[in-house]
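Ex. 9. Protein: F173A methyltransferase.
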Amino acid sequence: MEPEEQGETAWGRSRGDPLGGRGLLELAVASGVAAWATWAFLLAPGFRRVPLRLQVPYQPSGPQQVANALALLRGRSGKTVDLGSGDGRLVIEAYKQGLSPAVGYELNPWLLCLANYRAWKAGYHGKVSFLKKDLWKVNLSDCYNVVVFLAPSVKPPLAAKLLAELPDEAWVVAGRFPFPSWTPTSTLGQGLEQVWAYDMKEVRRAAQREAPSNSGL
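Predicted structure tokens for F173A methyltransferase:
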């Protein structure tokens, strides 16, 4: 190997030289491949059994989003669930706040492993639960606090499921996007950090008031 070749890196440039146009292109390609690999091997497995329109890509909730969601549930009790719990941060914080049992439903096995690791690291192993279950198939009739950070396309079918299964005493907290046909009892935050709380008893009363007018159409 020639002396000048020994100073070449895998990017085809000297260590001390700035990236040229080709280097930037190679870096962009490598970054794209890495992102695709992360999706394919870490995030996609749980999606394969879920209809396309009901799939929700993993997007971790920020600390303020989690704090706002739990602030609307402060003082409540009963089983608390996070539908699509991801890395488990909201479930863990809910338990810290005194909400128990605290359960997360998630299909992705890698995210379940991460959530259980976070619980173990926080000292809550065995005190919170992360279950590999499809949120569309799990029975929510014993849940009194439900948190959902899901896409707008999922909200209409999810609203029907919640109306059919949740007890009147339940509250639902939505993050990022509200339920379009429901009137929130309270809201907190602004922009991407805004969350909305819904009292299921009030939601059902509103639905019953609207039913006669809809039946006459």
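Check your answer against this statement. DSSP finds seven helices and seven strands in the chain.
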